[in-house]
Amino acid sequence: MKVLLTGAGGQLGQALIYAKPEGINLIATMRKELDLSDPEACQDAVYVHQPDWVLNAGAYTAVDQAELEPNLAYAVNAEAPRAFAKALKKQGGRLLQLSTDFVFNGQQSFPYRVDQAVSPLSTYGASKAAGETAVHNVFGNNSQALIIRTSWVVGPVGKNFMLTMLRLHREQQQLNVVADQVGCLSSTFNLAEACWRAIVQGSRTSMPPIMHWSDAGVASWYDIAMAVGQISHNIGLIKIPAQVNPITTSDYPTLASRPSYSLLDCTSTRLILKLKAQHWQAALKQLLQYVRNN
């Protein structure tokens, strides 16, 4: 099976390469090989490589910067998936499109189901929602596309909240972290496994058009910052964790609005993919141990 991977240099892309199953002919592309802001280049990549799947893990993920660069955010997050979909519909093959919890507005107090209407608060969220819509509009109901929404992705490489908190615990004595935004981490290790399971399984049988994936449990950014400090101390990554002070979203203004509650209901996905849930604290410990050992 031939899979064209975008975003190979990102934190999820690297995890996907590491976790590649046997029998997969992987064509891993980074920005220098495939510019996702260029729709023609995206279509040409499908025509040239003729993949069985496009695994579109590349994205514009700078949430606040997207408010200043909406055209670029939409080009990468909406027009690239549309271009892949058009080429795959013509050429043949399937698309696994990664999306985000930020397509929801966070104004409910129970986990978001896959069939709920989207209502993004930010340009980033709106651009990812537009990507979902574009894929659905191109393919209709012909089962060539699978969208996996995920949340709060962290891994041992790249730029993410876990690595930022690890650095700040080393450098500072006190940290102020938002405590009124609730969701759940998604370890790149576990997310990569879910993506590959979806591709392998989806090549044999029909899959739902949208799935949700995150690690198990629920947390605020404050909870995660506390856990990063404590786990890192316990495994010898830092000597003394910083004191973490809870603050509100209004205490830490940002360009982009963020959902206050964006927990994803992953029950059906775990059943379909036959993957057990790992609690976010266990996943966080696994990632930090990887950082320590590498």
Q: Can you offer a commentary on this structure?
A:
The longest helix is centred in the N-terminal third of the chain and has 22 residues, at 70-91. The protein is 40% helix and 16% strand. It starts with a strand and ends with a helix. β1 (2-6), α1 and β2 form a beta-alpha-beta unit. Strands 2-1-3-4-5-10 form a six-stranded parallel beta sheet, with helices on both faces. A two-stranded parallel sheet has the order 6-9. Strands 7-12 form a two-stranded parallel sheet. The chain has a domain at 2-158 and 185-216 and 263-277: NAD(P)-binding Rossmann-like Domain (Rossmann fold). It is an alpha/beta fold and 294 residues long.
Q: What structural category arises from helix and sheet content? A: alpha/beta
CATH homologous superfamily title of the domain at 2-158 and 185-216 and 263-277 = NAD(P)-binding Rossmann-like Domain
CATH topology of the domain at 2-158 and 185-216 and 263-277: Rossmann fold
The share of residues in helices is 40-55%
Main-sheet strand order equals 2-1-3-4-5-10
- Portion of residues in beta strands equals 15-25%
CATH class of the domain at 2-158 and 185-216 and 263-277: Alpha Beta
Form type: globular
Number of strands: 12
Q: Quickly count the helices.
A: 9
Mean pLDDT: 95
Report the radius of gyration as a whole number of Å.
19 Å
The helix/strand series, from N terminus to C terminus, equals EHEHEHEHEEHEEEHEEHEHH
